[in-house]
Amino acid sequence: MVGSGSSRKQRRDQQKARWKLRRQMMMEAACLIAKSLPSLVHTNARPPPKKRRYQHGRVKYKDSAGTLSVLPPTMSPWYILYCKEESPNLLPNFHRKFRNRFRLPYSNFLELVKRCTDDSNKPDGYFKRWRPGNQAAGGKPAAPLELLVLTSLRYLGRGWTFDDLTEATAISEEVIRTFFHQFCSFGADVLFKEWVRPPTSAEEAMVMCCEEYTAAGFPGCCGSMDATHVEHSRISFRNRQAHLSFKLPFPARAYNLITNHRRRIFSTTDGHPSRWNDKTLVRYDELATGLHDGTSPLCNIEFELYEYDPSTGRVRKEKYKGGWLLVDNGYLNWGVTIPPIKEANTTSEWRFSKWLESMRKDVECTFGIMKGRWRVLKSGIRVHGTDKGDRIWKTCAALHNWLLEADGLDDGWNSDWSGNLGELNEHNMPNALQTLLTLNNMSTVNYDTSGMGQGNHPQPHEGDEDVAVHHGRVIRDDTGAIIVREMSTEQFRRRLVVHFDIAFKRKELCWPTARLGREPNME
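== Plant transposon protein ==
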């Protein structure tokens, strides 16, 4: 048994030696062949194939000679209709059709093209690739800049695809895609900083936003705040779970927005996962956190509220300092964020909450205007990368504010109305406000818009309107004004309820409305 084991080991060692010798001989033979025939290795090697460039998606036509040629962008329908000097005279309703198709008036479009052209002449400009006079691949002139601006506006306004734009402009899909991302970068970095900004002083805030809210019974209010979701279908797989919220069946990005009653956007955050709630999003809003921390210039706003003197019971005015915002009940318990009361115990609280909910619809209307005007926010963003989706959102916000100023909707609201509140026309007020007036007159609520029959509304109780001033810990500045941001939501809201109830009984409130008979700018 011992001898057989040793012989088996010897045979295995001999086999390993033969394999090692065979590998060594093959390596030596390969080296000899490579040294003796160096030219054979190089001459027989095939050169790498040349990369062929195909013109994908370009529109072709047959000329008079019957030759199939590529249609240049300067012969495309869009260039002939919108980019030539005589284009406005081609159609009788040119300006109205242009506004409906590209969302911008023709004069604003020309101004936007000029700004893009000026940027292309800069060494570090966003559009230097499409500088007038530059040549693209093959020695051909670059695509017209005004035609590319139209493609970006159509993509944002109606949610077209890049392939659809190729058919209309005869520009390749890749060029349109590249320009679109550059345009959104220009909009997010340049246009956004120019058009989306909060008031820089208390005096400017009184003109831009506080006038309407003061007339409606909310002195010191700077705007309304809420969050919205925008579908983003190209979220990466590793981030998909965070972008699937409990409300939506698709991945989306969440944006926190602050607007005034004229629908002008003051501030908006970058996009965040849609699973984040309002309490988290508000911490990334610079305007809201500035009001809470005391670093915003709007903290210098001074206003007065009605209250009852605890000793005499007479109405007096108390001075306050600091701006605040209208929100829903999903935000943090800050003194600068005032939501409606969930469970109102008195008629004054119920009346205050109903009026606040109606006033806060301005931010909801802003969401509807933006998603209706820029359909890419409604149909969903289809570009890869969350940063690109955020630039699209900021570009749409900047163009929204630009259009408000172009149409004259950013100033001149009728908030200086004076008279009896009961003499307001019912067709100019929301249904919630009509309920307040009807309830104040002790009559039956007689409207129904749901088709489900008349509902039950709380009736006023005797004596519950006589709300005394609520005591609590307050901090005053050097002038004796109470600092709003140092109070809690409940503490400051009780004081607002008292002020609103007194102003309502004195018939000093009015509902801000836009001027009638104004037509949007089409030229």
